[in-house]
Amino acid sequence: KGRQLNSQSDVLALPIFKQEESNLPPENENKLLPFQYVLCAATSPAVKLHDETLTYLNQGQSYEIRMLDNRKIGELPEINGKYVKSIIRVVFHDRRLQYTEHQQLEGWRWNRPGDRILDLDIPLSVGIVDPRANPTQLNTVEFLWDPSKRTSVFIQVHCISTEFTTRKHGGEKGVPFRIQIDTFKENENGDYTEHLHSASCQIKVFKPKGADRKQKTDREKMEKRTPQEKEKYQPSYDTTILTECSPWPDISYVNNTASPGFSSSQGSFTIAEGNGSPHHQPDPVPATTDTLGSFRKWACRELSVSPVSENQNLLPTATPQDAQQWLHRNRFSPYCRLFANFSGGDLLKLTRDDVIQICGPADGIRLFNALKGRMVRPRLTIYVCQELQQVREQQQQKHENGDSVSSSFYVYHAIYFEELTAIEMTEKIAQLFNISPRQIHQIYKQGPTGIHVLVSDEMIQNFQDESCFVLDTLKAEGSDSYHIILK
Known about the structure:
Helix content: 10-25%
GO molecular function, one term: RNA polymerase II cis-regulatory region sequence-specific DNA binding
Pfam family, one: GRHL1_C
Number of strands: 18
Structural class: alpha+beta
Largest sheet: 7 strands, mixed
Protein name: Grh/CP2 DB domain-containing protein
Family: Belongs to the grh/CP2 family. CP2 subfamily.
Oligomer: single chain
Keywords: DNA-binding, Nucleus, Transcription, Transcription regulation
Number of domains: 3
Number of helices: 14
């Protein structure tokens, strides 16, 4: 299971089975832990004496967790005056859901696109530094804090317990979750990887105000019980103290990926967008004296116009460093650490389901299309051929055969439009001719009775897709520029 988590950061990772660790060994009962976390929400009165506490929360409501320094004098002196890092998670409590966690979360993600399971309420929080909520980990938040200073973090849980139950009839019983906090100190390399303390508690999440109603219902039920029955149940406490538990099982994943922003090494995660543009055009070639000659030579040249330049595609031979640069250029920077050791070949082998599981539906589909080099279909495509070349070939056919041949072979070139503007057409034709757009004075379309109609944005927007045109050129008077005529 741990291996699966290394490649699926957006799923609820499998926690240690809390049913098996709720009773700590006797030697730990009086142990003074270095930290204590207190969730400011009342525990349920309907919990039996030797069971774990259960706390009801309202969906989307901000709840305070007090981060308390519980160290004895002289304990852990190396963190004095330094920050520690804490990671808060909301995970499944039931073993049944732990086994199907990925399917459960994917269903939730599709039903709630753009939402998170766990969020920080930063304006209400006190004493936290560099709060983070990784977009690929919907159930995790993290932050730095100084144990010597007052620290309170406010969290919001957005999923409700009944979202993960089989809806056969009304009044389904919601599933419990766990809130787990893991705290780490900084190692000699500046990474927060050395585990200090972990604690967790059991919760259920209801629709707004539902937790208050459930708490009231439990209280009323307990009031109806006999004194002998009440002795078998815990009293309700105003706050919930998280109890010590095993650290999060996939520690290597936590260290290397979940908190890339806290690394001080040169290889730490940074967000940087590349300067490349998929629609970047090469610089225009300076005008030459024989511009008309360039027109004549153009039809004999093999030209290729593509909506996206070749350097946008990731090659199988790309090294991991090249793959990282490609991810940056294509706006996948948040996932660079996830794919830190992936070469181009590794990335290209990923299936559509793989990338959706890793990056979520939105970015996953975008990444898959980018990896496979799938281009967005242009809004308009036209084909053009130069008239001078056609006339020359027709004359040559007549000379050789003594008669014109109607099945002459002509070379057309494709022009792809994205903006459907006259300026775009000028730039694309100039690129085909290998001249500056400034040398094209006007573009006309030959209309009825041979009239020349000025090409406008509206005219291009009304072109039929895959229309064919023959290009003719006229020298503009008093300048070195030319008119282009579409026939």
